[in-house]
Design goal:
The chain has 668 residues and is of the alpha+beta class. Pfam families: DNA_mis_repair (PF01119), HATPase_c_3 (PF13589), MutL_C (PF08676). Residues 467-609 form the MutL C-terminal dimerisation domain.
């Protein structure tokens, strides 16, 4: 007897369900896509216990004829394609005829439907793929389908489901994508009797974006439009100032079908060129209209992945469309100019410290310098975040004391110098040693290092760099006894900032500073769910959020180490990082947050530093625990030793053995 036999339909459907129906979110996706194919104008999704108890989808679409209702649950039964030619020009969301029989094979399904003009509708009840009841029923036009007792006959599938909160997040994300892809359809989403999302269905995509990501985000979206012979691109992208920590906020649809395509996502980011921060991504919703012949959707069971003809042409169109749209915008953010103007007390205090820095310091007081001139020479970051600015005065070189004769050692200036620096370690933070320059006629004094100085010099891992200049506003040129050093100013200050923030965030101090006005933070439903799961993690680093409405939170206080004027940005950055990496431990969260904050607050490329700021940066760098790499692993400095330089300029050449007949006698 042969071993090969044909599987029965129920078992075949259960096998197919393993590919199509992975979790409750898959059921929502398949049922809502059926509603869209039925030309629905309104779709209501009602979920209980994250879809584990029930999923119900109600629409006002075309409905199903009474004679077709049983056939609709047969495998590969569909009304959307008729021949193999239709498979290569699919214009509907579904076409395989797998969704309904797959769902019915692993759950309890009740469907009630009616078509326009019918006096009554039809109800069908199936459980585990078996048809139990088919009968007439009162119903309005459209379809009402309810799925309960999911995976009751395949309990092994239940153990692979995540927590109810995670499953609800997946459902919410699917509904958000479908709403963004179909702004002309009114969606509503209710979970356990609480409405989580609603769209108007007035074909206004910007309003849907605002409903999902918040009104403020909606106002910062730019409409884009581009076309060529094969593609039409329309949608919205955010201003460069509105970014997120992951690519999950980029939605791409092809003929209003949500898809995932890495090359198209890269094209959106390329359109911003260098206007995005490293590791930051825009919010974007882009629909691509094209001939169905140019796309193959029959690739993945869930139809998320597609194959595109002329993909590179489309990539260039998307990038160029975004590039042109952003180019006409004024991208300078609005800031409070008053925060850069020092008050009278700060000016008087700084004047006093400058005067005390050296007895021969005769520069004009800071109060005499116009505000605009001061701002032009300052790095617009706080002192703790910007060590170059904080210690700039430490590198100030006052007028030298020149010694012509031995009698000059008894001058008042020299006596003040002795009094100020006779004790090691008593130099004030805003003072600098005054150099003594001896003329050639004076015999130099032989000064030997003591034993401790020699040991410190031997143990010093990082050279004592002497500043030379700045290259292209990005690199600092410095020298030491062993050659030339080129320092990446951004990477250097990123390392300095990282060690500062790592220490401050790791302290987990209970000291808090109250906001004058509590900070209200608004997030999308998906983000709010993630935040609610990790309130304890945020509280452990000093951010205690209180729920305030459906997707909003109140922050009444913040850690005292937050820099003045940056409290809101710092809190949002920390929360944003948690949303991106929700599974981080507190230790990892502190480290990742410190890396992110150190990068955003470091000196950027093409930022020209004056000599004092550059010297201060080079002075702080050796004090780091690891001055060799930035937190992302990039090198802070590269080194050219003397021999390398001499080889580059051909001062050292390969040795050759001279032959007598190659040279005249007088050349030796």
């Amino acid at each position: 007897m042969g071993k090969i036999h044909e599987l029965d339909n129920i078992l075949a459907n259960q096998i197919a369900a393993g590919e199509v129906i992975e979790r409750p979110a898959s059921i929502v996706k398949e049922l809502v896509e059926n509603s869209l194919d039925a030309h629905s104008h309104r779709v209501d999704i009602i979920v209980e216990n994250s879809g584990l108890d029930s999923v119900r989808v109600i629409d006002d679409g075309d409905g199903i004829a009474a004679e077709d209702i049983s056939l609709a649950f047969h495998r590969h039964a569909t009304s959307k394609i008729n021949s193999r030619h239709d498979l290569f020009k699919v214009q509907t969301m579904g076409f395989r005829g797998e969704a309904l029989p797959s769902i019915a094979s692993v759950a309890d399904v009740t469907l009630t439907t009616a078509q326009a003009g019918q006096k009554e509708g039809t109800m069908i009840h199936l459980r585990g793929g078996k048809e139990l009841v088919v009968k007439p029923a009162g119903a309005r036009q459209g379809t009402d389908i309810k799925v309960t007792d999911l995976f009751f006959n395949t309990p092994a599938r239940l153990k692979y489901l995540k927590s109810p909160q995670t499953e609800l997040t997946r459902i919410t994300d699917i509904i958000n994508r479908l709403a963004l892809a179909n702004p002309a359809v009114a969606f509503s989403f209710t979970h356990n009797g609480r409405e989580l999302f609603r769209s108007a269905g007035n074909n206004n995509l910007q309003q849907v974006v605002a409903a999902i990501y918040g009104v403020q985000a909606g106002r910062k979206m730019l409409e884009i439009s581009g076309a060529d012979d094969d593609f039409k691109v329309r949608g919205f992208v955010s201003l460069p100032e509105l970014t997120r920590a992951s690519r999950q906020y980029i939605t791409i649809t092809i003929n209003h079908r949500y898809i995932r395509n890495f090359e198209l996502t890269k094209a959106i980011i390329q359109g911003y060129e260098s206007k995005l921060m490293v590791g930051r991504y825009p919010i974007a919703v882009i629909n691509i209209d094209l001939d169905p012949v140019l796309v193959d959707v029959n690739v993945h069971p869930a139809k998320r992945e597609v194959r595109l003809s002329k993909e590179q042409q489309l990539v260039e169109l998307i990038a160029e469309t975004i590039r042109k749209r952003i180019a006409v915008e004024n991208l300078i953010p609005d800031v409070d100019a008053d925060q850069f103007i020092p008050n009278d007390d700060e000016v008087a205090n700084l004047d006093r410290r400058l005067k005390e820095a050296s007895p021969v310091y005769h520069a004009a007081p800071i109060s005499a310098v116009p505000v605009k001139e001061k701002a032009a020479t300052e790095i617009p970051t706080p002192e703790a975040d910007n060590p170059a600015h904080a210690d700039a005065l430490d590198s100030e070189i006052p007028a030298p004391i020149v010694i012509h004769h031995l009698e000059d050692l008894n001058t008042p200036a020299m006596q003040k110098f002795d009094e100020r620096y006779q004790n090691e370690g008593e130099v004030t933070p805003f003072s600098a040693p005054v150099p003594i320059i001896a003329e050639k006629s004076v015999k130099p004094t032989n000064i030997e290092l003591d034993v401790h100085d020699k040991q410190d010099q031997q143990q010093n891992r990082f050279p004592d760099l002497q500043y030379i200049g700045q290259l292209q506003g990005t690199f600092l040129l410095a020298q030491a006894g062993d050659g030339l050093y080129i320092v990446d100013q951004h990477a250097a200050q990123e390392r300095i900032n990282y060690e500062y923030y790592r220490q401050k965030i790791g302290e987990a101090s209970a000291d808090q500073q109250n906001f004058l006005v509590p900070l209200v933070l608004n997030y999308s439903t998906v983000d709010a769910m993630t935040i609610n799961q990790h309130l304890d993690t945020l509280a452990a680093v000093g951010l205690e959020l209180e729920s305030f409405g459906q997707n909003s939170f109140i922050l009444r206080s913040h850690p005292t180490w937050f820099k003045e004027g940056q409290e809101e940005d710092t809190a949002k950055e920390m929360i944003d990082w948690l949303i991106k990496n929700g599974k981080l431990t507190i230790k990892e969260f502190r480290m990742k947050t410190a890396i992110m904050m150190s990068c955003k607050r470091a000196i950027k490329a093409n930022h020209h530093l004056d000599e004092r700021e550059a010297k201060a940066l080079l002075k702080r760098l050796p004090q780091c625990e690891n001055p060799f790499n930035c937190p992302h692993g990039r090198p802070v400095t590269v080194h050219f030793n003397d021999q390398d330089l001499e080889k580059m300029f051909k001062r050292i050449q390969d040795s050759h053995t001279p032959y007598a007949d190659d040279f005249d006698d007088h050349e030796f």
